[in-house]
Amino acid sequence: MARDTRLGNKDELEAFQETLFRAIQSSHLNFLLGAGASCPGVAPAGQVESDILELLKAEKVREADKKTIQFLKQFKQPMSELLGEDRSDNVGKSLRHYVDFVQTIDILLSERKTNLLPRQASIFTTNYDLFIECASEQCPSILLNDGFNRVPSLNNLHKFAPERLFDATHHTGNHYDYTAELPSINLIKLHGSMTWERQGNDVVYRVMDFDKVSATKEDDAKAVATTLQSVAIVLPTQRKFQQTIIERTYYDLLRIFANVMERENSLLIAFGFSFRDEHILEIVKRALRNPTLKLIICCYATDEVEELQQKFASYNNVGLLIPETTGQLDFPRLNSLLRAVGPPKVPT
């Protein structure tokens, strides 16, 4: 069964930190981020997915598409703020959380004592937003690999190439014969991104035109369909698995996620993710048959614990981080826990 670590228990917390230190030093480091990671900058989808599904079951396709456009329009304000300089308190707060997170990963990779593992961490996320990309711009010491092939292009369009993920970058001295791998983050957006645009049979890098989406008339079925067709994200409906299977890009990303979890000595830290996505939950459960995989799930509040315990009751390689009864395990708390990881104490 899943093993619990109560952050309010000093002994359990110290034991967890020692275990986490050893895991980071000897394992492939991976994170799974859900909608909760981008709060309060972007509000979670809530019941949008189930509402759209009910409309589709009732064969009300136009109403479902209208609801989807309304969902996308909610991103205009926070993403416009993020890409600009005049940011609200909520957007600015979420960006600071992500910057601290990326900087923390940089520290963990830089202080890794082994050369047997790549100096890389992988972030898997179902979020469409641009917080990680924006945060990486403020952390130049670590490279962000988002899977786009950025070779010189006369039309200035960069195509998405999943095979470029996990590429390593090395720095070589000009006068002395040495090579050093630069810390890097592989960013795998399982449901697509607002930096993706469909162009024929390819996905190219282009930030979504939020003004165009916002200007789409919800009562114009043709305009709505055209806008949704151009968006390169898996929309929040239960049709997404069908889309994922049909479209090569999304299928490749799910396959990469599954393969990474199958590697020997892998660590996956899940934050802001409820595991209510049945398809990702199925992949994770299947991967947990790998006894060298360690899954750590951050529970935002104590009311999430029972549901997660039931989902992972059959697995001994799953650990739940549980906050105090009146506390929360938010993004700053996670960053603090990761930064506090140090060498295990030697008994005196």
Percent of sequence in beta strands = 15-25%
Largest sheet: 8 strands, parallel
N-to-C SSE string, H for helix and E for strand: EHEHHHHEHEEEEEEHHEHHEHEHEH
Q: How far apart are the first and last residues' alpha carbons, in Å?
A: 33 Å
Number of helices: 13
Q: Would you report the number of β strands?
A: 13
Q: Pairing-aware structural class of the strands and helices?
A: alpha/beta
Residue stretches low in confidence (pLDDT < 50, at least 5 long) are 240-246
As a whole number of angstroms, the C-alpha radius of gyration is: 21 Å
Percent helix, as a range, is: 40-55%
Q: How is the largest sheet built, in terms of strand order?
A: 1-13-12-11-2-3-7-4
Mean pLDDT: 87
Basic shape: globular
Your description of this structure?
By secondary structure, the chain is an alpha/beta fold. It is built from 13 helices and 13 strands. The strands form 3 sheets. It has an 8-stranded parallel sheet with strand order 1-13-12-11-2-3-7-4, with helices on both faces. It has a 3-stranded antiparallel sheet with strand order 9-8-10. Helices cover 41% and strands 18% of the residues. The chain is globular.
